[in-house]
Amino acid sequence: GLCDCCLDCATLGPCCLLFWCPLCWLPWRAHANVHRMGGMTTPCGPIRQQHSWCVGLLVLTALIINFMLQAAMTTRLFIEGGPMVNAVAMSSVGMCLGRAESGCAMSGTDIALRSWTLRMSWWDPQQSVKVCKLYQEAVSNCNCANSMQQAAVDDLAAMDCSVLDSTPRQALGLFSYALSVSTLMLFFMGVKRRYGLSHSGLTAALEACCCQSCFFLQLSRHIDRSAGFMLPDWRHEARQPLVLQLQASQCQAPVQTVITAS
């Protein structure tokens, strides 16, 4: 089917499947890699060929758990985030802050500059909490002319900013990243032992950290070529021994003609 594409990484087939449906493609690809290798030996122990379906099942389970946790955290953020995650409400707050007659504690320009400074610290898990408290300080004593703007300001002043803490989401993301890199390095060690790759561990670690998808596709391509599952590449005749043999068989020896005086 669509998953059974053994194309080169230079083509868009595997890349599209990887990003379009990772829940479908990655488990199958993990199972296919182990099965086509005839099993593999990792630093954690050997994996037999008949157990390749277990590898695919483990990958699928990990992907589903990670997706469900991310979805639960994101849903909770949108439910409890209040006006801070509502673009329409924050637009109403901004219009109220921009009017000098509203009597807010800060002007629109001041709040924009200070919030921009806080947002520069993108690595800080408390960034959204600090921005929320800054807006709550800015909208204190605001008397908006529009009822919709006043309702948005009141909701912002009454919300609990601690729900915007991104520490759990960042911790989950860091754990998922470390787990995927570690699993990919174990897979690389198994492929290296099986086929005697010349890649060093440091180079592999850099590739796994910078682009996990690219490195996984590269290893899968190598397995397909070594196991004979790669589609023919007519641009490189050296990879086509049957074609070379056919061309050689068609080359006949020169015929010598002897001319006599008779």
Radius of gyration: 30 Å
How would you state the average pLDDT, rounded?
Answer: 80
Termini separation:
71 Å
Helix and strand run: HHEEHHHHHHHHH
Strand order of the largest sheet: 1-2
* Residues in helices, as a percent range: 55-70%
Provide an overview of this structure.
The protein has helices spanning 13-20, 22-37, 52-80, 87-98, 108-119, 127-138, 147-158, 167-195, 201-210, 212-227, 241-250, and strands at 40-42, 45-47. With 262 residues, the protein is an all-alpha fold. Strand 1 and strand 2 (45-47) form a beta hairpin. Helix 1 (13-20) packs across helix 2 (22-37) and helix 4 (87-98) crosses helix 7. The longest helix has 29 residues, at 52-80.
Structural features:
262 residues, mainly alpha, two-stranded antiparallel ribbon, 11 helices, 2% strand, elongated
Give a short synopsis of this structure.
With 262 residues, this protein is mainly alpha-helical.
